[in-house]
Amino acid sequence: MLAAPTPFVAIVVACLAGGLLAIIAAAGTLTLHPRWISGLISFAVGALLGAVFVELLPHALEQGSTQRVMITVLAGLLLFFLLEKLVLWRHSHDAAQELHDHIGASSRPGLMIVIGNSVHNFCDGIVIAATFIANFALGTTTALAIVAHAIPQQVGDFAVLLHSGYTRRRAFVYNLATGVATLAGGLAGYAALATMQQILPTVLALAAASLLYVAVADLIPSLHRRPEPAQTALQLALIGVGIGIIGLVHVALEH
What we know:
It is a single chain. By secondary structure, the protein is mostly helical. The protein has one domain. Helices cover 82% and strands 0% of the residues. Helix 6 runs antiparallel to helix 7. The chain starts with 6 loop residues before the first helix and ends with a helix.
């Protein structure tokens, strides 16, 4: 059996490959019907919830006290709420709404999208670093969940940049440049956490709060715009697929 790569190598590969994959997939997905974007969002919700409840929280609870971990998750949810209110965490996950509105309802300029996406990607890099330092399987499934939700996010970013007057090529280059922030976050997270194992449970709890907030506050509300029973059943099925894939990857890597 091949040995798992070192955390540093895994972090660099996950940050580079994950960010590039999300941007390329988003560029190709932008021309699809909004119904397909809604399906991607449903899958992303499942992947994020799977990463939180199958991977991140159980691992954090194994390494830290239950009370400390849960208080950290609660504080993290409130923190991300405040950051979003301050437009420091605005990462444009409402791709479905923007596409349904024919990309005309958004008033956010392209520059704000680039800045907001860079901040968000930097935080994703830190999450990837923390999880790979804790456990290779945990890092792999978390990186998969992050890529899953980054694709609809990037679709929304592309839509706003194009609406702001950017050419498709320029929008792609700008989004690719913001992907470097993921690697920067991964390297910063590795430098800060590699020798500080004792704070990993707290960092993992914050990571869980981050992904949970994205799923519940940003992605799930967009799914409620299609309340028809058939659409609801499809959304639940795709959420289940997202959770199932995270579970399968977890089992495969652990055993």
